[in-house]
Amino acid sequence: MCVQHSTRAMADRAADLTAVLLADPAVESVSEVLHAYGERGPGPSGDLGLTAEDVAAMRGAAGRLREVFAAADVDEAATLLNRLLAEAARPPRLTTHDGRSTWHLHVDGHDDAPWAEWFLTSSAMALAVLLADHQRVPGGICAAAGCARPFADSSGGSPRRFCSPRCATRARVAGHRARRAGAAPGPRPAGDQPA
Ligand SMILES: [Zn+2]
Q1: Fold for the domain defined by 7-183
Q2: Which residue intervals make up region (Disordered) (predicted)?
Q3: Could you report the per-residue pLDDT of 30-46, keeping only the tens digit for each?
């Protein structure tokens, strides 16, 4: 468990898990995202042993985390994160998972805590660190039409509005088309079609 521990990786993992849990909460899909972030079970196959009950509980946590990504401002995000940490987090502790990883911080109860507890506490911790680093909401909800995917924003540069370069491009093209349509209102005469 827990191979990539940078705040950035943990915050991105929080956003990607939130997205998959709310959109496509199948055990296979959620396991795929966990594998992509380096999570491996203890056995040789690396199977995570994730169950439908785990995913259902994780989905509840995802709903809470989505509120943080959707927060209107930094104060609201901080209030929501404080509430999550007060409810779910335990005293910070360092672990290597019995030598299977480098030392890193956990705020769940123990190394064998349920997936939902691990997901909620590790996500809240990473998002809280990002918030304190950059003094703003630690992510957002993609502004591209029809996307609404949550994303983490760990850059510290100008705040992002889109989950991905793909959505940013799509929104720019749509905006350009809308402006052109606005500049030439009404149906075009047949003879006015571009060649
Ligand atoms: Zn998007």
Answers
A1: Jann2411-like fold (1.10.3300)
A2: 174-195
A3: 999 999 998 888 777 88
